[in-house]
Amino acid sequence: MIGVEQTSIYEPEIIVRAKDLEHLTGIPENVIIEKFGLTEKRVAPDSVHASDLAVLAVRNILKTVDPKSIDVIIYFGSPFKDYQVWTASSKIQHELEATNAYAFELMNVSSCFPIALKVAKDMLVSDQSIQNILLVGGSKESQLINYDNPRSRFMFNFADGGAAALITRNATKSRILDSFIMTDGSFSQDVLVPGGGSVYPVSKEVLDEKMHFLDVPNPMSMKERLDPVSMPNFIKAITKSLEKSGKKLEDIKMLLPLHTKRSMYLELLTALGLTEDQSIYLHQYGHMSALDPCYGLYLAEKENRLNKGDIIVTVSAGTGYTWAATVIEWLKE
Question: Is 3-172 CATH 3.40.47.10?
Answer without folding.
Answer: yes
